[in-house]
Design a protein that fits this description.
Protein name: Excinuclease ABC subunit C
Number of domains: 2
Strand order of the largest sheet: 1-2-3
Radius of gyration: 24 Å
GO molecular function: excinuclease ABC activity
CATH architecture of the largest domain: Orthogonal Bundle
CATH superfamily of the largest domain: 5' to 3' exonuclease, C-terminal subdomain
Distance between the termini: 46 Å
């Protein structure tokens, strides 16, 4: 509601909240919740909207977190920049794919010096665990 107020959109956008356990519907500023029959199509639509918003938010957060972890690990290897990282990801699809690749496979993608740096980086990481 704070964001809607800041954008001066109060009254132009309808905002409701739905509590998960009892499926109570809340309107901003109204302390008394609205209860809909559990079998109504209205409640089913509101539940679906809530579940989709939740799924979208979780997926976005997971994607952002995993990309951040990937970028920080690969870019911390000397000599690995954006282009090398992009080539590695296109070839191996994931960080675990890069970690499990052989020196020869990595050399075919990023060259001998970078491949050696990648293998050394991940072997040091394994020994530190």
């Amino acid at each position: 509601m704070n964001a809607i107020r800041q954008l001066d959109l109060v009254g132009q956008i309808v905002v409701i909240g739905i509590a998960k356990r009892l499926e109570e519907i809340f309107y901003p500023g109204d302390p008394v919740p609205l209860y809909l029959d559990k079998n109504t199509s209205s409640l089913k639509i509101i539940q679906h909207l809530r579940n989709e918003a939740h799924r979208f938010g979780i997926s976005f957060h997971r994607d952002k977190r995993s990309k951040g972890a990937l970028v920080s690990q690969l870019t911390s290897i000397p000599g690995i920049g954006d282009k090398s990282m992009e080539s590695l990801m296109l070839q191996f699809r994931s960080l675990s794919g890069i970690k499990s690749a052989t020196l020869e496979e990595l050399t075919g993608v990023v060259g001998a010096a970078r491949a050696k740096a990648i293998v050394e980086f991940f072997s040091k990481e394994e020994t530190q665990k």
